[in-house]
Write a structure and sequence with these properties.
homodimer; 331 residues; alpha/beta; Rossmann fold; 7-stranded mixed beta sheet; 7 strands; globular
């Protein structure tokens, strides 16, 4: 009697089990062209997620880290956060008349990119301190949100959060659908990236690792407040990436995704671990649909990591040939 | 035909839906005695999780932070991590003959707790540097695991990971079952706590915030390695707790749980936010089953936060009367 009663239930359960299985067979990465790159990604994901596989990795160890600039969204003609800082300098200039004659602010105000580049990392750090500090993290979020809502990339005539790479969005979703936890590990500011990582990448604030300035806690007339200080706390680039990952995540990733020499150490540390590992470099080879740059680029220089890739077994994505689409379609 | 076929399925679905509902009605906190404390916790959880409630908080904002020492496990007669450091000093002493005549090492070797307390925070920091640095994070994890597997608390004759508070384990599980993400925010070492937070509290390494020493990245003959350095990086106590939460989690918690003045700022920052908030202090009032201490204690001093609790609306748990059980039962 019970058996008969539950036969349809068993049939339904069978259907429920079959549905995800057939969904698995459909293409999880439609914006990627078929070929060895896509195949290598899928092969890795399949082998670490199939319990019968000798390379099975339990879900709690499926940690994947993604660089942001040039890996998840565009970084030319300059880092988006630098464009933000330059706009902030212009906005704050009336309160700082001295900036007219003081580098790197003068270069920022004049749009003199050559002089700005000449001011080096120190100059950029000065710009960041002057434009990113002196407010609470919540106030900073409002400033970033307001800017991202209106700022547009000149060449593509689109807001920056639309200039994210569709194939990488698919890859993030594909990995998560297979039990991975996805993190951003960016040389950019942790609070800047957190502003859009949720809605744009599906990555919550706690899963963003990045560079940071110091923060101070204050009790302002009984109102506890955090204030962002003009003092560097941590630079999440090069050596800083594995250090930041260890500090923040506390586990070595099994997969890492980058596009520049700033990602070398993250890729190397990730793929040097025992068991199955995936390292992937997005090589910008598509001047027509996006940009073509590597060894000589000011932003996102890719040289040492490109040379090391074959030996290290890192996949190099040829954007021009491996990506069917680059950006999400215009609405 | 279809309708008939699926009627049992619908019945089954109904059962499946009803089961969790009736589980909700059963007591989620059986190790807590009924009374205003338990009721206040349940009322808070119900109001922030019921979609019809005016105080509803979406799951992504249900962030709850827990202090560790004295809140999740015992901290008397000394912090567990200090007991670990003292045992490490003894183990490493043969390599450091100079320690016999040098404080705070001499005090550690002699078991002279008074002299050790006299060496202050600086002395304890020196002990930590000498015993927690000079190896990779992975090697440190092995050292901690080996120690926790054998070290025993003298009074209770149990390993430390058994001396966790059963009511708090229930609370962690209850919050998670209601869509909260639970974090540890400890003055203790982040890597020390990560060693057992997964199996003991169900909290993965990435959800542990704590104090830390600096780490360096090195390429040792082609083998990328992290090395723990004898240099303080961040002290996650007092002001450091909201700063650490902001850095690590990137969101203000809606609920915070502590037991000492070291948690004051975390509690204050959490409960000063808009919308429904919960702040809770575990008051150690049970000399018989655990310990009774507050204003005069060397470890876990509770003074300023105890005075502030009524005004701030923080719940004060009276361990003796609010907890039906303290530790998990002996096997």
């Amino acid at each position: 009697m019970m058996t008969n009663l539950f036969r349809p239930v068993i049939a339904l359960i069978a259907i429920l089990v079959i549905v995800p299985a057939s969904a698995q067979d459909s293409d999880p990465l439609p914006a990627w062209n078929d070929g060895p790159t896509k195949q290598a990604i899928v092969d890795f994901v399949v082998k670490v997620t199939e319990p019968e596989s000798g390379d099975y990795v339990p879900p709690q160890d499926r940690v994947a880290t993604f660089d942001n600039d040039g890996t998840l969204w565009l970084e030319q003609p300059m880092y988006v956060q630098l464009a933000f800082a330059l706009d902030r300098v212009k906005e704050l200039a009336p309160e700082h008349p001295e900036w007219k004659n003081k580098q790197p602010f003068k270069a920022a105000l004049d749009g003199d990119m050559k002089a700005l580049a000449g001011s080096g990392e120190k100059g950029v750090a000065e710009l960041v301190m002057a434009t990113h500090a002196g407010m609470s993290p919540a106030e900073f979020q409002t400033i970033v949100s307001d800017w991202l809502a209106t700022a547009k990339d000149e060449r593509f005539e689109r807001g920056y959060t639309n200039l994210v790479y569709r194939p990488m969005l698919e890859l993030l979703a594909y990995l998560r659908s297979r039990g991975f936890t996805t993190y951003i590990v960016s040389g950019g500011g942790i609070e800047f990236v957190r502003n859009f990582s949720g809605p744009v990448y599906g990555i919550p604030p706690a899963q963003v690792v990045g560079s940071s300035i110091k923060t101070k806690y204050e009790d302002l007339d009984g109102e506890p407040t955090l204030i962002r200080l003009p003092e560097m706390n941590f630079i999440d680039d090069k050596d800083g990436k594995p250090i930041g990952i260890n500090q923040h995540i506390g586990q070595r990733p099994i997969a890492a995704f980058g596009n520049s020499d700033g990602d070398y150490q993250m890729l190397d540390w990730t793929t040097s671990g025992e068991g199955p590992r995936l390292g992937l470099i997005v090589h910008h080879t598509d001047a027509e649909r996006e940009y073509a740059y590597d060894r000589d680029s000011t932003f996102g220089r890719l040289d040492k990591a490109l040379d090391a890739a074959p030996d290290k077994g890192w996949i190099v994505v040829d954007m021009k040939n491996d990506w069917k689409e680059v950006f999400p379609p215009k609405e």
